[in-house]
Amino acid sequence: MSAHAAATTHDAATGGIVTESGFRSTRLPDVKLLMWVFLASDCMFFGSLIGTYLAYHNRSIAGPFPADVLDIPLTTVSSFVLLMSSFLMVLALHALRNDDIPKFRLWTLGVAVFGSIFLGFQVYEFVHFVNAGLSIHQNLFGTTFFILTGTHGIHVSVGVLWLLSILVASYRRPTSSKDAVYLEIAGLYWHFVDIVWIVIFTVVYLVEFV
Amino acid sequence: MATTTHADHRVASQLLRRPTWTKGLGSWLTTVDHKRLGILYILTSFTFMGAASIEAFIMRLQLMRPGQQLVSPDTFNQLFTMHGVTMVFLAIMPLAIGFANYFVPLQIGARDLAFPRLNSFGYWVYAMGGLMIYTSFFLGGAPDVGWVAYAPLTSLSANPGLGVDFYMFGLFISGIGTTATAMNLIVTIVNMRAPGMTFMRMPVFVWMMLVTSFMIIFAFPPLTIAFLQVILDRTFGTLFYVPAMGALPILWQHLFWIFGHPEVYIIILPAFGMISEMIPTFARKPLFGYPVMVLASILIAFMGFAVWTHHMFTTGLGPVVNTAFSLTSFIIGIPTGVKIFNWLGTLWGGSIRFTVSTLYCIAFLVTFTLGGITGIMVAMPTFDAQAHDTYFVVAHFHYVMGGGALLTFLGAVYYWFPKMTGKMLNEAVGKWAFAFVAVGFHMIFFPQHVAGLLGMPRRIQTYPAGIGLEIWNFMSTFGTFIMAVGLILVFGSVIYGLRKGRPAGNDPWDARTLEWATSSPPPYYNFDYQPVVNSIDAFWAEKYPESLHVERIDRSEGKKYEGSHGIHVPGQSWYPILASTAIIVGSYGLMYDNWVLAVISGFFFIFMIFGWAFEGVGGHHVHVEAEGHRA
Fold first, then answer.
1. Which one, of A8, A35, A10, lies nearest residue A184 by Cα?
2. Are the Cβ atoms of A56 and B610 closer than 8 angstroms?
3. For A40-55, b where at least 16 C-beta lie within 10 A, e where not — what string?
4. CA B464: distance to chain centroid?
């Protein structure tokens, strides 16, 4: 992608490194710091959406209500698929760091496929709910549920698109362990989106049946 | 000074040819240079400030005498909404970001921000989002719901015009830019400090921008979600703020003020940073209590997220909530008070030079303290029940935002103009202008305290005669004329200084931080050699090592911290401005229910992001062959 991370020398006196783009005070790549900062900000983003969902919980004045439509076994399966994609993500990064390009491609494709399966489940669920009479116009549960899980779905879609782009790029230009940081930040994003789903699954789905 | 450059040999797939102009319009549209973007930010925010000042001026004329009908109530609503929105989102906050853009890399001895193209993107979405809001004046009327835009006043049924859509979309978009730039600043400050510049050797302005940036990335998402909810309500028929369906309009107030109170500190902390640069320079003393200053700011940042409900004391959240948030609001006054004493301690015993900047600093100390005292008053729920939504509150926040931030920024203009242009501003004219601005400011806003205590509500278009409000409103309006004279003098002085100001030299103020170590204006690669730092007040330590008990630094030492190819200068790019344009066009599409336009813009945006990602940083390397810049 770029030779940003290449050719670095560690400077013992300052704890920093000298890169092609100049001196860096920490040994962390800029892109990785940016991703951490972005994820910190994204916590507040999802926090506000989840907060809205909780503030409007049990305030719908018309059905369908959560317990009428939520299907725990189905969503458990899709959640499991999403969690397993994080496992494949770790394998993909490990392979790239060891310059094992075929494995890196295989596992990256695996992550994208698992992410797509999760999205497929979500599309199925949305269609099913709409058929059951739940829409964004129907009641507050519909409004908050679709916007919260929809925003998460958009995050997953961006992740799938991103991983596929990395995969395609690996065929079009030389790829090696030097590029691992770019897969790593995609991985950070992916794991974060995964963790957010665990929170959403708990708050929206599980708590409803406690 | 001789430099040689060579192009970057790294090959990247290119959709658009990489622009290489160094002069003319194209070079400004595609620039990624933090100094040029800083200048664009500063000019744009002053332009918006001019628009907001005109709006304020019309409002003051309308309120000069009781019972006037200069503007209709409807127009008046649009004026105060646009005045508030413009000043907060499009003028004062971006002004601080503009100064940060220009001076943070220079002060930490870096050559640019960590992500130059992201920086360009941040600027263009902010500027275009702001312009978009202003097009509402010509497209059916500006938003008229106040700058806080409480639900359900913003619902489609209560407000069918497009004004609210412009507010929501415009601020949503410019918020993306602000957040992106804040993330960029954090990475830059954490990772691009000069060798030897530990966190506790950073200039205080850099510290304040680090803290501010963290506040931005945490405060803006709740606001973005709130905007999104109203946009979805109005465009797609969701029910977030439809009380008839069980929704809670107070949710908007919570989300808005969870952003809104940190926003107050997002505006004032950069000003604190500038004050902390100017006072030590002009008192010729190190900043008193540097570590306390830093820690106080961090405490303010944390507490800033724990006081939002004091904007909602009169909404009936109950005595427990009110008491808790009243206490946190008192506590946040402590670190702020500590800072005031630190600045006084710095001035105490210094050999003070009374430049224009010094005068603005002193005016800041007085005005901001007055605003802080009224802040403590309205932090008491019992008092706030009386003062809420009156001119007392208007006076309070203008004392902290106008008197705190704006006076400081004017001082900073005088302080940094020589560095940005290489020319001095006229000090004598500057002092006259200062007198008009300071006197005018207090003339405008001090009487508003009294008007507010007498019960004059904010946001009213007129008031009847004979209830004791005439004199205070007349004084207030009279003050606007005085302040306007001062601001026009500043403006004229800047124009004159650009053309005929006397040369400034590298270090006109005998200052303390690294931006003064390079030429004025700095070359596009900032420093001939990578600066190396061994003390707080790095440039002062280089000039007078004995006064700080440190060793003299050999400038050529920085050479070993540069990459093997010399100084890397990132390449210009079309993608940031094109991606921003796509966002704006798409928003118009959504607002006017033109789905084709919206979808095309969406795909164009994604296309541009791909182009951006695969374009790479690019650029070229510069070799400085001779040290040329020391005065």
1. A35
2. no
3. bbbbbbbbbbbbbbeb
4. 38
Residue from the list A20, A30, A41 with its beta carbon closest to the beta carbon of B568? A20
For chains A and B, count residue pairs whose Cβ atoms are closer than 8 Å: 151
Low-confidence ranges of chain A (pLDDT < 70): 1-8, 12
Its ipTM equals 0.94
pLDDT reported for residue B7 = 52
Task: Please state the domain count of chain A.
Answer: 1
- Cα separation, B103 vs B276, in Å, equals 14
Q: What is the DSSP string of A75-93?
A: HHHHHHHHHHHHHHHHHHH
| Whether A34 and B187 lie within 8 Å, measured CB to CB | yes
pLDDT above 70: residue B81: yes
Put simply, the answer to whether A37 touches B187 (Cβ < 8 Å) is: yes
Q: Which domain holds residue A36?
A: 29-209
| Separation in Å, CA of B245 to nearest CA in chain A | 6
Contact with chain A for residue B9, Cβ under 8 A:
no
User: Does any domain span residue A196?
Assistant: yes
Q: Identify whether B521 is preceded by a cis peptide bond (ω within 30 of 0).
A: yes
Name the A residues in 150-169 with CB < 8 Å from any B CB: 165, 169
d(C-alpha B102, C-alpha B121), whole Å? 16
Q: Are A210 and A57 in contact (CB under 8 A)?
A: no
Stretch(es) of chain B classified as CATH 1.10.287.70: 567-631
Calculate mean pLDDT across residues B115-130: 96
Nearest residue of B to residue A135, measured between CA atoms: B238
In a domain, A23, yes or no: no
Q: What are the beta bridge partners of residue A22?
A: A19
Give a yes or no: residue A3 inside a domain: no
- Are A1 and B616 within 8 A, CB to CB? yes
The per-residue pLDDT for A9 is: 73
pLDDT at A90: 97
Measure the CA–CA gap between B402 and B104, rounded to whole angstroms.
Answer: 23
**Nearest-Cα residue of chain A relative to residue B571:** A21
* A68 in Cβ contact with B261 (< 8 Å): no
CATH classification at residue A127: 1.20.120.80
Q: Given CB atoms, is A38 within the 8 Å cutoff of chain B?
A: yes
Q: In what order do the strands lie in the sheet with A17-19?
A: A9-10, A17-19, A22-24
Q: Are B166 and B591 in contact (CB under 8 A)?
A: yes
Candidates B213, B621, B197, B183; CA nearest to A16 is B197
* Whether A98 contacts A177, CB under 8 Å: yes
CATH code assigned to B34-512: 1.20.210.10
DSSP for residue B423:
B
Query: Sign of the CA dihedral B553, B554, B555, B556?
Result: negative
> For B399-508, where are the alpha helices, taking DSSP H only?
407-421, 427-453, 470-500
When computed from its CA atoms, the radius of gyration of chain B, rounded to whole angstroms, is: 25
Which residues make Cβ contacts (< 8 Å) with residue B491, sequence separation at least 6? none
What is the reported pLDDT for B17?
A: 80
- Please report how the helices A140-172 and B595-615 are oriented relative to each other, as an axis angle in degrees rounded to 10: 40
Instruction: Look up the CATH number of domain B567-631.
Output: 1.10.287.70
Looking at chain B, the domain(s) classified CATH 1.20.210.10 span 34-512
Nearest by CB to A2, from B196, B219, B617: name it.
Answer: B617
Any domain includes A15: no
What's the confidence (pLDDT) of residue A3? 40
